Structure formats: structure tokens, C-alpha cells
Amino acid sequence: MRRILILGGTGWLGAEIAAAAVAQGHQVTALARGISGFAPSGVQMVHADRTESGAYAPVQQPWDEVIELSYAPELVESALDALAAYARHWTLISSVSVYARNDQSDADETAQLLVPEDLQDYADAKVHAENISRARLGSRLLIIRPGLISGPGDPSDRFGYWPGRFQRGGRVLAPEPAHRWVQTIDVSDLADFILGPGSTMAGTAINAVGLRITLEEFFAELQTSAPAGTTLAPAEDSWLLDHGVNYWSGPRSLPLWLPLRDAGFAQRSNDRFVKAGGTLRSLSETIARVLVDETRRGLDRTRRSGLSAEEEADLLRMLPPATARAPLKDQDQNTGSR
């Protein structure tokens, strides 16, 4: 049994880590404001605002593991000031967004990082968090750099938008899939790595990313559980941008859609993760898990990412009919993972 402190523990990933740690028999404490949700059963919850003086006093004691989920400079720095001396091992959850370039296929952890300039920017703040944590913790620090995280309960709606949308059937507006990729890691696989192989690793960084598949393969996999007659309606990038559709995430977006110049973002090397003992469930299993959750939460609900049904319908009415495509299941598609 290990004593684990999670700085967070009530949000999506933090709660997943906390629940998994309890299930493994560890003694788990979560320090958080508690506004993102509730700590899982079996977790000792310490309510505290980390921007306030004395917030860390209740947890200034020896820990086998401290897991930092924040990237806000004031929170990362204050945690290091208060707790670095008490931690045997420290895991910082960073992101593949720290890399300076997204146009390189199969880039690994040695790729060049951004130079942080604006600490209000997500990527710059992540790099800053890595730098100051490395300076304070040295060989006790493991940096985890996830890519897109998927799974039940995802609050971002980036991955879940697509299983939910295909399940509604009809014409599905999508970007042209050629030369595009999807790379995701299931939230449970990520938590298992952090608590398992990652707990014995330090002094390094790990790309915690999944298998790379083409966007065409991803859509074909979604088609297997979609209603009969579901049709893909691909649109060119220029057309989508001219009609106010956004890349990647957020309102009025097509999630996972990236500029072709950034195709390397979803083609990172996961060799170090796999060699360290990381395991990855199949894409079909993750999709099945997500689809159950999407159905429970409501396929027609308002989402943080994607197009509403009304927005998509308006766009489909304007889309030139020549771009409509037959149902994916009728095409000769290679659905294997790479």
C-alpha cells in the first residue's frame, strides 16, 4: 500500500486516478476545492483553495506519491514550495502540446519543446510547469505527456462527439479524412500507467499516447454501430472555415479536425510508453465504453465541443451535393489499427 496525494482528484482524470488507486488498495488523499465534482468513495478529501495561504498545511507530511494535475503557474509553484520536501516520487501530468512542432510524424520525447512566453497560454504554461518541477525535484520527477484522452465522462466532448453523432445516423458532416489521423488514450489506461509502471519511473518524460489510426479508419469503426444508411458528408477545409467551423474543439467545431500541417500532433511515438509497460485497449473497446456513456448522458445534449444538430443541418443544406459520400460500410475500408 502506498500513500498517494492527488492535487485535484475531483475532475475527470483526477477522479479516475483516485478511484483506481483506491481499488488497488492504496491510501489516497485528494486536495482540491471540490467544485469540479466529488472525490470517489474511499478517498480522503481535503477541501482547500490552493491560491490561499496555508492551503497545503493539512497535507504537509510524507507521501510515497504526489500527482500534480494543474498547469497554472501559481498552483504548480505553490505546491512545489509546500510539498517537494515531503514527496518520494512526483508525477506531473503535462501534455504533448508542449512540443514546438506538430508536423513531424513519429516524433518522440526528445523533440524540441516550446519556449514559454505567455503563461496564460495552455501550452506555454505546461512547459513552464515541466521546467520548474524538474528544477525542484530532479530525479524524483516523472513527466507524463498525454495526447487526446478519451473515455466515459470526458467533459471536453472532443472524442465523444463522434460516437454520439454517428449513433444519431443520417448525413454526418465531417472534414475530408484523407491524410488525417486520430491518436487517443483511454482514461483508464492512462490512470493504470500512472499508478503502475509510472510509479517506479523518474527523471524522464513519457508520451502517454495511443495507437495511430487514420481518420478514415476511425469513421469506419464508428460506422459499425451506426444506424443503417448513415452517410458521411465530407467537406473541404476551406469550405468549413469559410462557414465558421472551427478546428479541434469548442463550440461550432468538428472535433479532432486539425490543419493538415499539424498532422504530426496525432502521430506521436508511444514507444517509450509501451516499452515501460503501458497497455492500450483496442479502439473498438474505447468507442463502446464511450457510446454507453454518451447514450446515458443524452445524444442530443448541448456539448462543449462540436456542432449542434441545428448548426450541422444548416451546414449540410449549404454543402455542395457532389461532396456527399456513400455509407462507410459500403466502401472498401481498411479498419485495422496502426
TrEMBL record:
GO molecular function, one term: aldehyde dehydrogenase (NAD+) activity
SUPFAM superfamilies linked: NAD(P)-binding Rossmann-fold domains
GO cellular component annotations of the record: cytoplasm
Renumbered residue ranges of the record's region Disordered: 316-338
Cross-referenced Gene3D superfamilies: NAD(P)-binding Rossmann-like Domain (3.40.50.720)
InterPro entries registered for this protein in UniProt: Epimerase_deHydtase, NAD(P)-bd_dom_sf, NAD(P)-dependent_oxidoreduct
Positions of the NAD-dependent epimerase/dehydratase domain: 4-195
PANTHER family: NAD(P)-BINDING DOMAIN-CONTAINING PROTEIN-RELATED (PTHR48079:SF6), PROTEIN YEEZ (PTHR48079)
Protein name: Reductase
Organism from which the protein derives: Nesterenkonia jeotgali
